[in-house]
Amino acid sequence: MIELDGLTKRFGNKVAVDRLSCSVRPGMVTGFLGPNGAGKSTTMRMMLDLDNPTSGSVRIDGKHYRDLEEPLKYIGALLDAKSMHGGRSAYNNLLCLAQSNRIPKSRVAQVLDTVGLSAVARKKSKGFSLGMSQRLGIAAALLGDPQVLLFDEPVNGLDPEGIHWIRNLMKALAAEGRTIFVSSHLMSEMALTADHLIVIGQGRLLADTSMADFIHQNSRSYVRLRSPQQERLRDVLHEEGLIVVETGSGTLEIDGATTEALGELAARHQIVLHELSSQRASLEEAFMQMTADSVEYHAHSELGAAPPPAGPHWGDEWNRRTAAGTAGNGMPGVPGTSGTVKGA
Length: 344
Hints:
Elements: E1 2-11, E2 14-24, E3 28-33, H1 40-47, E4 55-60, E5 75-78, H2 90-100, H3 106-114, H4 130-142, E6 148-152, H5 160-175, E7 179-183, H6 187-193, E8 196-201, E9 204-210, H7 211-217, E10 222-226, H8 230-239, E11 243-246, E12 252-255, H9 259-268, E13 275-279, H10 283-290, H11 315-324, E14 339-342
Parallel strand pairs: 3-7, 3-8, 5-6, 6-7, 11-14
Antiparallel strand pairs: 1-2, 1-4, 8-9, 10-12, 10-13, 11-12
Helix pairs in contact: 2-3, 3-4, 7-10
Keywords: ATP-binding, Nucleotide-binding, Transport
Organism: Streptomyces atratus
GO molecular function: ATP binding; ATP hydrolysis activity
């Protein structure tokens, strides 16, 4: 387990990490998310005593990193794939680490086989591609067979097969009861890998929750409907006090009602449905919604415009109605008046 207690790091007047307190528990993959400049790398460096905190502390299984007699047997880390000595072979890079940490020589061949580098074990690492360097860095992290593993952007440079491999590896390691802490900018991959999320922005803790709860709390779920009787369906929905969003693709999007309720409503009015599906925003959309105020650099040009909030195409009209409290008396839990909002 990794425990952070009031962890703070200042660089002059800049607060990189601000009183961060959380725990990374064993037996699961914990994703570490935040916009660029949020303090993720600084936090991971302080976990490994590569940077000293201004205040607060980090403990690994109850101990400070500096107090671990044989650190690689407690915690393994991949922070920089190109940190290996380029003039040494993959095998010799790992052998030096093994010998300096009293790890059996036989372990070197084992981890090289695990990461798929046995065939290039005797080649100098300076000639490795980014993906191969990532695999070598992962091998170094696994060398001491530690119970705690930190991975900073572990899929960077990997091909699809490699991404699938590291995903399965992290899940398998977590299933063995190890503590797995991983940062990544690939939200689609994190959604498939992580069980729990710690999200920071501007150095502060924004969320410490399960993947499912994070998406649920930071995005809007809605139901998508498509029917050859679209106008009649829309009128029926309006009569129920629901806000209907027309997407322009022949579908209607409804917030605040279940698929069961909408299906029964259509059946009562003998309306044929070609689509009735529950939709939820992705991890990426939920993340952008959560961290919108924590992004250091915003793009506003047409080519790099800031994205809309998560959920269906509600736009300014939805925000205006919600803020004004113009709630109708439609289906339970529907906070709006009836009417059609034209989406983008």
